[in-house]
Amino acid sequence: MLRTAVGGLFYWSFLALSATLGICFMTVPQLPLLLISPRLFRNTVDAFVSYYLMFVVATMELLYGIKFVISGDKIESIPGADNLIVMNHRTRLDWMFFWCCLYRHSFKSIYNLKISLKSTLRHLLGLGWATQFSAFIFMERSFDKDKHILRNMLHYYRRVRKDINLLFFVEGTDKTQTTTQRSHAFADKNNLPRYDYVLHPRVTGFSHTMQLMSQGNLDSLYDVTVAYKHTIPQSELAILKGQFPQEVHFHVKRHKKEQLPVEDEALQDYCKELWKEKEEQLREFYTGDKRTLYSWGDQHSVECSQLRRFWLVLCIIFWISATVLSVYLILTNSLVFYYVLASCLGMAIVSRYGLDTILAKL
Question: Where is the Phospholipid/glycerol acyltransferase domain (predicted)?
């Protein structure tokens, strides 16, 4: 029943509702910390958001039965160090499924997660507000604008001494029929091979991001490949129709900073080579006999331990209970109702400017 249009509607509705109420009751009261202790604000908000991401992981794995196959290197969050994570962008939802990959590696990895997203996503009710509180990086898809946004946010993380795992989509957009045709046109114009399973990467943005992070505490570059077995949910609408994936595969390859080039042109060539390998890996996955990504390269597969599943169960119990209790208080207590209304109106107004932008300027 959950893998139907009714189940899809319930999925998005409950995620939006729980995120909105979580912000109102657990995050908005922390805003005074922005002036008192910006670093404490960052740590407490990121802890709250991490537990919410675990709840999303729990719903996907335990309630909707999505199987995740994780292989390759472990994403390590070393104190005082940052990581850059690049991944092919097969669907609009890759970043959400990736939370399941990070959770298997460590809670610290998901706690330090920051994502570069399209700027329009900051306005989504509840979920968009949560990403703003998390200080995700919202891009305008213009390098002249985005290089300043990226620099300001990286400076903000350093000011509050926040270690990050930055998920950066080098392709700039998800793979659709339209974007594939654009990628083919780019390849033909620049005498490059056409790719069927990835889009040609935007190497200028990759090189700039690598150089900025290398000026700080960059430890490693993680190259992640994502693939879907059977159903491929292209967008939020697919989930709304109940088209949940049966299996999502991730393969992780670690590149230590010492192994990476430094110069701009060399970094761009390095990125092109990563995507060439990714195209071959995905071609083998989708057309070959072996239907797992870890049959290509490292054979290590990461399973979800019983302890981690236990914590996922606790997350489901907590968030469902907290959401039901919050709704009850809103319906029965006028003070709570007006508080939530004021909080939502305030966030709607702040979203026009971007809480992430405000944070970067503090």
Answer: 83-207
Q: What is the DSSP letter of 258?
A: G
Q: What is the pTM of this model?
A: 0.93
* Distance, CA of 129 to CA of 45 (rounded, Å): 12
What is the sign, positive or negative, of the torsion defined by CA atoms of 134, 103, 70, 273?
Answer: positive
Percentage, residues of the chain above pLDDT 70 = 95
Residue 70 per-residue DSSP state = E
Q: How far apart are CA 16 and CA 4, in angstroms?
A: 18
- Answer for the pair 172, 141: CB distance below 8 angstroms, yes or no: yes
User: For 117-141, what is each residue's pLDDT tens digit?
Assistant: 888 777 777 788 888 899 999 988 7
d(CA 243, CA 240): 7
The Cβ of residue 212 has, within 10 Å, a number of other Cβ atoms equal to 17
Cα separation of 361 and 184, whole Å? 40
- Phi, psi values for residue 333, rounded to 5°: -130, 115
Rounded mean pLDDT, 220-239 = 94
Query: What's the one-letter identity of residue 117?
Result: L
**66: closest CA among 3, 123, 114, 120?**
3
Considering Cα of 65, then 70, then 74, then 75, what sign does the dihedral take? negative
Q: Is the alpha carbon torsion for 34, 37, 38, 43 positive or negative?
A: negative
- For residue range 171-210, list pLDDT tens digits in order: 999 999 999 999 999 999 999 999 999 999 999 999 999 9
Non-local (6+) Cβ contacts of 175 within 8 A are: 88, 89, 90, 91, 197, 198, 199
Q: Which residue has the tokens 């004021």?
A: 342
> Within 10 A of 157 (CB to CB), how many other CB atoms are there?
23
Distances (CA, A) of 297 to 274, 278, 281: 14, 11, 9
Q: How many CB atoms lie within 10 A of CB 59?
A: 22
Residue carrying structure tokens 């008192």? 36
